[in-house]
Design brief:
By secondary structure, this protein is mainly beta. Helix content is 4%, strand content 41%. It has one helix and 13 strands; from the N terminus they run E-E-E-E-E-E-E-H-E-E-E-E-E-E. The longest helix has 6 residues, at 73-78. The two termini are 14 Å apart.
Length: 153
């Protein structure tokens, strides 16, 4: 996944099908991105391998609230929930609230569904992780990638 100082949209986008919610209750739906390895990665001999360098500590949480939150369970279950506006950056100043990541680190997006209630306490938090969504953040593609860089969305 390419990251830049000015921020770059995720490609491919995260898309989820949600079911099992109470149709009339309201929910916030959001994504965060957490490190999935304790070391950095390197591209060597045509493949990704773990390096001996410890991964950097995340300086702040990377959270993206879906812009249609809060909404009813019926709304979220009606169609796929698409996170098409998430932007990734390596800019520590992060003026536009993009998700701050470190290059050559492996990450895992997590989907969170939180019931919205009148109380201040967080209730019924559901978190989902899908290992197939893991990615390595880079500032440039590391492989030959001639075919990959021609993909358009």
């Amino acid at each position: 996944m390419i990251i830049t100082k000015q921020g770059r949209r995720m490609f491919p986008t995260l898309q989820y099908g949600i079911d099992g919610l109470e149709p009339t209750k309201k929910y916030n739906v959001f994504v965060d991105i957490i490190p999935s390895e304790v070391t950095t990665m390197k591209f060597q001999a045509g493949k990704w391998i773990k390096s001996n360098t410890p991964a950097s500590k995340q300086s702040k949480s990377c959270v993206y609230l879906h812009p249609e939150s809060p909404n009813t369970g019926a709304f979220w279950m009606r169609n796929e929930v698409i996170f098409s506006k998430i932007k990734l950056t390596n800019n520590k100043k992060n003026p536009d609230s993009h998700m701050l990541l470190n290059s050559m680190h492996k990450y895992l997006p997590r989907l969170h569904i939180v019931e919205v209630t009148d109380s201040k306490e967080t209730e019924n938090v559901q978190t989902f992780m899908f290992p197939e969504t893991k990615f390595i953040a880079v500032t440039a593609y590391q492989n030959d990638g001639a075919q990959f860089t021609k993909l358009r969305y």
